[in-house]
Amino acid sequence: MRRRFLPTLLAFLPAGWAGAALAQAPRGAPAPPLALPAGMSPLPGGAFRLAFRAADASISTAAQATLAEIGRRLVASLSPGLGRVTVEAQASGPSNDASAARRLSLARAQAVRDGLAAGGLATNLIDVSPLGRQPAGLDAADILPPGAARASRR
Predict the structure, then answer these.
(1) Looking at the chain, which terminus has fewer C-beta neighbours within 10 angstroms, N or C?
(2) What's the pLDDT tens digit per position in 25-63?
(3) What are the structural domain ranges in the chain?
(4) What is the per-residue pLDDT across 10-25, written as a single tens digit (0 to 9) for each?
(5) What fold does the segment set 37-147 form as a domain?
(6) DSSP the chain
């Protein structure tokens, strides 16, 4: 029954549409390398790091586009119901106010989450972890796909 149904269905599609659908790259084909903008770097295990300016949670337009592409790639690679993406954000200061550093790192993590969601990654699959001020003193957010080591374990 299935073998007869597909040709029948293809006969009712507009001209050229069926060929275009069949000519797409097969699912699971490797994606082309990702061009990272200034301030973004790859980490082991398929993770990425986005650097921020001190006391700032804004993300450049180029980084927003890259986050959306990372979100699209994560959607394509995640198995339904298996795995979550973690965004760990840090702030280097202010050194005298741990609460302010934690709020800044939360704003950064939420901005990165929103960028990934712009690419189609559901926000309920993204864990946000505002680390506040850490000994490394970084102004950054790490995007960790399932299985990638957390910053605290690297």
Answers:
(1) N
(2) 445 556 678 899 999 999 999 999 999 999 999 999 999
(3) 37-147
(4) 343 444 433 333 333 4
(5) 60s Ribosomal Protein L30; Chain: A; (3.30.1330)
(6) -HHHHHHHHHHTSPTTHHHHHHTSPPTTPPPPPPPPPTTEEEEGGGEEEEE--TT-----HHHHHHHHHHHHHHHHHSPTTS--EEEEEE----TT-HHHHHHHHHHHHHHHHHHHHHTT--GGGEEEEEEES-TT---EEEEE-TTPPPGGG-
